[in-house]
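Weekly puzzle thread! Below is a chain. First person to post its structure in token form gets bragging rights.
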Amino acid sequence: MSGFRIIGSGHYVPGRPYTNDDLARVMDTNDEWIRRRTGIAQRHFAPAGQGPADLAVPATERALESAGLGPGDIDYVLFSTMTPDHLFPGSGPLLAARLGMRTVPALDLRTQCGAMLFAFQVADALLSSGAARRILIVGAEAHAGIMPWRDWDILEGTNPARPSPEDWDRATRHRGWGIIFGDGAGALVAERSEQAGPGVLATDIHSDGRYAPLLCIQAGFHERPYLTDAMVNGDAALIHMDGREVFKHAVTKLPKSVEAVCERGGVRAEEVDWFIAHQANQRINEAVCQRLGVPLEKMPSNIDRYGNTSGATIPILMDEMRRDGRLRPGQLVCMLALGAGFHWGSLLLRT
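Winning reply:
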């Protein structure tokens, strides 16, 4: 039986951090309100003209450098994003082309904040079957284009004016999710290992489209045309999120999933070295830890600095942990996430 090892990692966030006080320029909010509800102090936004494939380039270059490899050593690309550069084609082949990977297969995955669970499961299958020897696993997001404010110059402090009452009200109406998201990319290099120890030990992964209306963008190809001026000027092209319901689902489903995956993997929760959770909301992760009875120190966090970078949160966090020495070979890791779809679950990984 073969497994796989993570042999390289990298991450990238664009530009300067935008603080909670910056957001208060374009909507009715403040630093204390945001910190108390989410644990977020700042986030980064991609500048105009940059999409997730652009953000993924430096993250991938750093991952390849840490692995001692070049683009030609990658056999497969798994690219996860919910904010693609284009409706089509996907961002995976764009990244591969920019790195000079030529005809390497590049698969886009659209499982939003649950991305890494599915990406690791697919990577495990590809490596185990011999279809690939080394896989680039990427999560990258450019949420800036769907933020609910229009006045970026006011947000950045280069324009001292206030937004129009209509723009202020629009942004404030969507502040429940507008304060959460940030942009960035994380990349991991996975290599097939003939040793049975490292790799995916067990999974507990689910999808349930009945909950899709709780977290979605309503515009799409079910309309004719798929995007109108009314949608752009209204709310249909923005995120719709029922924050309370998403919170309740997360703090209920995730602990159950972790318990299930530990049972399948034949381990106890207290044996897990790290619970690497999607960075959606610090209150969610604290509640999950409490329900599992595990110390919060075992669930590292960086949401205060980056916000919710959706599919990129877990690989960004894993890269930081590998570089500062917390995440080491041989450790037992439980990854967990819930995102739009709903997609949710957990995965046991031996590093």
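Puzzle host: Confirmed. Bonus trivia for everyone else. The chain is about 35% helix and 20% strand.
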